[in-house]
Amino acid sequence: MTEAAEPAQPAAGLAPAVLEPLAGRYAQWLGLPAAVLPEPEDDPAQVQAMQVVLRVERTAPPARTALLEAAASAAIAVCLDERAAPGGQWHDSTAGWLAGRIRKVSRRARGAHWQAVQELPGVTVAKSGAEVRALVPGRVSELSPQVSRLQVAGTDLPDDEPGDPPRDRPVLWLNPDVPMTTGKAAAQVGHATMIAAALLHADGQAAELAAWAARGFEVAVRTPPPGRWRQLSAPVHDPLTAWRTDRILAVRDAGFTEVAPGTITVLAQWPPPPARAGGQADRR
User: Fold this and answer.
1) pLDDT in tens, 1-41
2) Beta pairing class for 104-109 and 48-55
3) What residue ranges do the domains of the chain occupy?
4) What global pTM score does this model have?
5) Could you read off the pLDDT of 87-111 as tens digits, one per residue?
6) CB contact at 8 A, 146 and 161
7) Crossing angle for the helix pair 20-31 and 182-202, nearest 10 degrees?
8) Contact 220/172 with Cβ under 8 angstroms?
9) Domain topology for 14-31+48-269
10) For residue 171, with 0-12 CB atoms within 10 Å meaning exposed, 13-18 middle and 19 or more buried, which class applies?
C-alpha cells in the first residue's frame, strides 16, 4: 500500500468520530423495503462521493480480482488514515461524507493521468500488479481537473480465476446473480470493508481492526456458485446476529446505477477467530 508505501493505521479514537454513523445505520438500512430506499439528492451540487481511481493501462491491464481487492483495501485505508482522525486534515471531508449517503465513483486512469492523481489527497494500494487510488471524499461538483477528466465508463475487465481464497483474511463474495462492471464492483467491495471496520469498532474489536490495518487491510474477492451464495446469505435477514454469530455482513445497493434498489451486491465473511492454545477456537 502506498502513500509513501506505508500501511495506514487506525488512529486512536477514530471510530466513534468517523465510522460510528455507518455502524449505527447498518441494520436499519438492510431492513428498509426497497420501495422506500433514499432517492438521489435534489441538489447535485451537494452530492459527495469518494473517487476510486483504477489504474487500467492499455497494453497491460490488471487482473480483475486483484484490482477489486486493491479497491476494497484502499477505501477503508482512507477512512482509517490518521489524517482522517479528529483534528486531521482529512477529518471534516471524511466525516461529512460518512454522515450522509456513502457514494463512490470509480474512474479509469492510465499513463500521465494516473501519475497526476497521485498528487491528490488519498491512499494508493498495489495488489498483484493492480493499483487503485482512493481519494479523500468531497463534493462531486468540486472535482479537480485531474479527476473530472477521467472516464467513468470503460473500467470493465474480463473475469479471471483466482482460486480458493486464503483463510486468514476477510472474503468479499460478489453476488453471482447480479452482473456488475468492474467499476461498480470496486465501489461495492469498498463499501464492504468500511462496514466491516465500523462493526468491528462498534463491537469493541479494536485489536482485530488494528491487526487488519497492520496487514494493509488485505481481503480476498471471489464470486461463489449460486448455491454457496444462498447459504452465505441465509442469515442476513437478521443483520446484527449474522455479524456477531456468523461474522457475515451484507452490502445493499440503493439502486442509483446498474442494479435494482435493495440488491445485496456483496457478502463479507470475516475470518474465524484464531485458535486458542490447545487447538480450541475462541467462539464468541
Assistant:
1) 544 333 444 444 344 358 888 887 887 767 656 555 555 55
2) parallel
3) 14-31+48-269
4) 0.88
5) 899 999 999 998 888 899 999 999 9
6) no
7) 110
8) yes
9) Bit1 (3.40.1490)
10) buried
